[in-house]
């Protein structure tokens, strides 16, 4: 069963999301998409469908029109606040750039019980595909003159403290990711402070889970870890 939900964000904006309901579960996963995607992107929608038989999952579209990890982290905080009395456990899951927003949102927020990161982009100095690197470089170059970008970089530097991440954390990393280097996930894993952390290095899946078998494989990783 699914239900469309609007969650207030600020005076002018609402977060548009779809809740996949599992009445037998007291756990909710917040599914955070990556750069250029939305809650209706095939991989996001299909992953939610595959996980729904085991847990509740909420897929949503970030409210920023251009990538802004500060706003995205604040979106996550608003969603957690909305659901925190409705579910016993809240898990945040981020994919690609959504992984960075999820990481920073978890470190800077409250009431998040677990974190899952899939092929996360984390570090500004590590390799990503050129078409995304151009956007990143322009953001850095114009940050000194654009307050929005400057505030975003300050938020990034202030909250990128993986040693302070103490909730159970699962990283799923493609060893041959063609978009974001696996070194992002591997380096992050080494610095996470939680004693309950696990990393799965998968040599089959690609960055965007472009095949049904990749989606099913990741869904199995998620449900096995969440429900154990």
TrEMBL record:
UniProt feature coiled coil, ranges: none
Name of the protein this chain belongs to: Serine aminopeptidase S33 domain-containing protein
Cited Gene3D superfamilies: alpha/beta hydrolase
InterPro entries to which the protein is assigned, alphabetical: AB_hydrolase_fold, UPF0227/Esterase_YqiA
